[in-house]
Design goal:
alpha+beta, single chain, elongated, three-stranded antiparallel beta sheet
Length: 67
Protein backbone atom coordinates (compact mmCIF):
# COMPACT_ATOMS: atom_id res chain seq x y z
CA UNK A 1 0.00 0.00 0.00
CA UNK A 2 1.56 3.34 -1.02
CA UNK A 3 2.23 6.01 1.57
CA UNK A 4 1.18 9.56 0.68
CA UNK A 5 2.91 12.58 2.18
CA UNK A 6 1.51 16.13 2.26
CA UNK A 7 3.55 19.33 2.37
CA UNK A 8 2.36 22.92 2.57
CA UNK A 9 3.78 25.55 0.22
CA UNK A 10 3.12 29.22 -0.47
CA UNK A 11 3.28 30.56 -4.01
CA UNK A 12 2.45 33.78 -5.83
CA UNK A 13 1.89 35.19 -9.30
CA UNK A 14 1.15 38.50 -10.96
CA UNK A 15 -1.08 36.73 -13.51
CA UNK A 16 -3.68 34.98 -11.34
CA UNK A 17 -4.59 32.19 -8.96
CA UNK A 18 -4.22 29.45 -11.59
CA UNK A 19 -0.69 30.61 -12.34
CA UNK A 20 0.17 30.76 -8.63
CA UNK A 21 -1.01 27.14 -8.28
CA UNK A 22 1.02 26.10 -11.33
CA UNK A 23 4.09 27.84 -9.88
CA UNK A 24 3.68 25.92 -6.61
CA UNK A 25 3.55 22.56 -8.42
CA UNK A 26 6.39 23.51 -10.79
CA UNK A 27 8.73 24.48 -7.95
CA UNK A 28 7.81 21.49 -5.76
CA UNK A 29 8.34 19.08 -8.67
CA UNK A 30 11.98 20.20 -8.91
CA UNK A 31 12.76 18.20 -5.76
CA UNK A 32 9.69 15.98 -5.25
CA UNK A 33 8.56 13.07 -7.44
CA UNK A 34 5.14 11.42 -7.75
CA UNK A 35 3.01 14.51 -7.10
CA UNK A 36 -0.65 13.45 -7.18
CA UNK A 37 -2.66 16.52 -6.23
CA UNK A 38 -2.71 20.10 -5.04
CA UNK A 39 -5.29 21.46 -2.61
CA UNK A 40 -5.65 25.23 -2.23
CA UNK A 41 -5.98 25.94 1.48
CA UNK A 42 -6.07 29.73 1.25
CA UNK A 43 -6.12 32.48 -1.38
CA UNK A 44 -4.76 35.99 -0.92
CA UNK A 45 -4.31 39.05 -3.14
CA UNK A 46 -2.10 42.08 -2.61
CA UNK A 47 -3.48 45.44 -3.70
CA UNK A 48 -1.42 48.39 -4.90
CA UNK A 49 -2.97 51.71 -5.93
CA UNK A 50 -6.46 50.19 -5.91
CA UNK A 51 -5.53 47.32 -8.24
CA UNK A 52 -4.61 43.71 -7.46
CA UNK A 53 -0.85 43.45 -7.96
CA UNK A 54 -0.16 39.82 -6.95
CA UNK A 55 -2.15 36.70 -6.18
CA UNK A 56 -1.01 34.26 -3.51
CA UNK A 57 -2.04 30.73 -2.59
CA UNK A 58 -1.29 28.44 0.30
CA UNK A 59 -1.33 24.91 -1.13
CA UNK A 60 -1.12 21.40 0.24
CA UNK A 61 0.73 19.18 -2.23
CA UNK A 62 0.29 15.41 -1.97
CA UNK A 63 2.80 12.91 -3.31
CA UNK A 64 3.43 9.17 -3.09
CA UNK A 65 6.60 7.96 -1.40
CA UNK A 66 8.77 5.45 -3.27
CA UNK A 67 8.72 1.85 -2.07
Amino acid sequence: MPIVKVIEVISSSTKGIDDAMANAVKEASKTIRNIDSVYVKDIKAHVKDGVISTYGVVCKISFRLDD
